[in-house]
Specification:
The protein is α+β, with helices and mostly antiparallel strands. It is 18% helix and 32% strand. It is built from four helices and eleven strands; from the N terminus they run H-E-E-H-H-E-H-E-E-E-E-E-E-E-E. Helix 2 packs antiparallel against helix 3. Belongs to the PAP/fibrillin family.
């Protein structure tokens, strides 16, 4: 993955600087989800008139149903994205289905203030995105980054995007909270091949909203409309100073 627009769009899809040697453009298995039928208990009683009647009452609190729904929705989402090569093989119909499932999961988000949650801390692996600049679909597969990671440290409000083979590019950024789940992103340092540091220009900025967060999955949406789904791989990871 090229370093500039391709790379930092895990956080955002705002334009970033052109580097002279960057050639790209701006830019669990399958789990069978079984539908859950919510049924209430039938309580029978006999009124004074002798006529029997039933009252349907659910003894399951809303938060229990909510948790059960979130688990099923998450399984359906993971099943939908599993064959899509992180989104590179997604058709418009695939993208629409994934977005619909993500939206349903976002509606039952258990973490209302993700920027105040320790669940956000650590290193995440990108498992799906609609960002073509990250997916690098215009390149031969051999020249695409195999895996992309994003680390966030809430206490320092720092973020880091990392590519794996074949480029190993990195970029770091400062985060400025705009509300309890949205941040402004200002990139400050690119590292080409993990070795050569280049200061990011002032226009390398964007925004990121964290729309779903639990201990193993995160959904985010960028200011250019791209969807990012990530799984937690190392909650202890710290971004190098």
């Amino acid at each position: 993955m090229a370093l500039s627009p391709n790379f930092h769009t895990i956080l955002t899809t705002s334009p970033s600087p052109k580097l002279p040697f960057v050639t790209s453009s701006h830019q669990r298995s399958h789990l069978a989800a079984k539908p859950i039928k919510t049924t209430g208990y039938n309580l029978s009683t006999t009124p004074a008139s002798g006529e029997k009647w039933r009252v349907h009452v659910s003894f399951f609190p809303a938060f229990l149903n909510k948790g059960k729904d979130a688990k099923v929705l998450k399984e359906e989402l993971l099943e939908a994205i599993a064959p899509l090569d992180r989104g590179a093989d997604a058709t418009p119909e695939d993208q629409q289905r994934v977005d619909q499932l993500a939206s349903k999961l976002e509606a039952v988000n258990p973490t209302k203030q993700p920027l105040k949650s320790e669940l956000l801390d650590g290193k995440w692996e990108l498992i799906y995105t609609t960002s073509q600049s990250i997916l690098q679909t215009q390149r031969p597969k051999l020249l695409r980054s195999r895996t992309n990671y994003q680390a966030i440290n809430v206490d320092t409000l720092r973020a880091q995007n990392m590519e794996s083979f074949p480029f190993f590019n990195q970029v770091t950024a400062d985060l400025t909270p705009l509300n309890a789940r949205k941040v402004a992103v200002k990139f400050d340092q690119f590292k080409i091949g993990g070795l050569i540091s280049i200061k990011a220009p002032g226009r390398a900025r964007g925004e990121l909203e964290i729309t779903y967060l639990d201990e193993e999955l995160r959904i985010s949406r960028g200011d250019k409309g791209n969807l990012f789904i990530l799984k937690m791989i190392d909650p202890s990871y710290r971004i190098p100073v």
